[in-house]
Amino acid sequence: MTQHNPARIEPGLEGFCQRIVPREWTLAHIDPSLPAVFSTPAMIGIMEMACTRAVRNRLPAGAITVGVRIEVDHLKSVPAGATVVAVSKLVKVDGRKLIFEVEVRSGTDIIGRGHVFHTIVRHSRLIGITAEKPASR
After folding, report:
1. CATH (domain of 36)
2. Is 130 a catalytic residue?
3. Which pTM value belongs to this model?
């Protein structure tokens, strides 16, 4: 991978992701006996996207970021159809390792918050690694 320029990826970069919660992102989609509320995995997914968007335009050619760790709290539930907005702020850069503060809101309510950890990798290397692994049956 081309050496990334640490002056270009620096704390303070922000990203966001706004979505309307579809039924497929609710607990009821996984188990119809559960309520149709925004699931934690879906919340983490939009947090991850907000982090990616914060640095995407600052990465060297051929590089992407991938999530490697999460520390988040899911604080409130919202139903399918609610608008949710994830906001990320890059708070630490350590070589290829990036740490983001993240928060998800619906209206004035904080739905979730915490930290998401990403690593900068070569896109082609990640594709190569996954191509070598057989699909599970």
Report:
1. 3.10.129.10
2. no
3. 0.85
Structural domain of residue 56, as residue ranges? 14-132
- What pLDDT, on the 0 to 100 scale, is given for residue 105? 98
DSSP string, 13-41: -EEEEEEE--GGGBHHHH-TTS--BB-HH
For residue 42, what is the enclosing H or E element? Answer: helix 40-55
Q: Annotated catalytic residue: which of 26, 48, 65, 118?
A: 48
Tens of pLDDT, residue by residue over 29-46, are 999 999 999 999 999 999
83 is catalytic: no
Share of the chain above pLDDT 70, in %: 84
Q: Which of 4, 40, 115, 123 is catalytic?
A: 40
- The reply to whether 42 falls in a domain is yes
**Active-site position among 4, 74, 115, 123:** 74
Q: Look at residue 129 and tell me whether its pLDDT is greater than 80.
A: no
End-to-end CA distance of the chain: 33
Beta strands in 13-134 (DSSP E): 14-20, 63-74, 83-94, 97-106, 109-122
Our count of domains for the chain comes to 1
User: Would you mind telling me the total number of residues written for the chain in this entry?
Assistant: 137
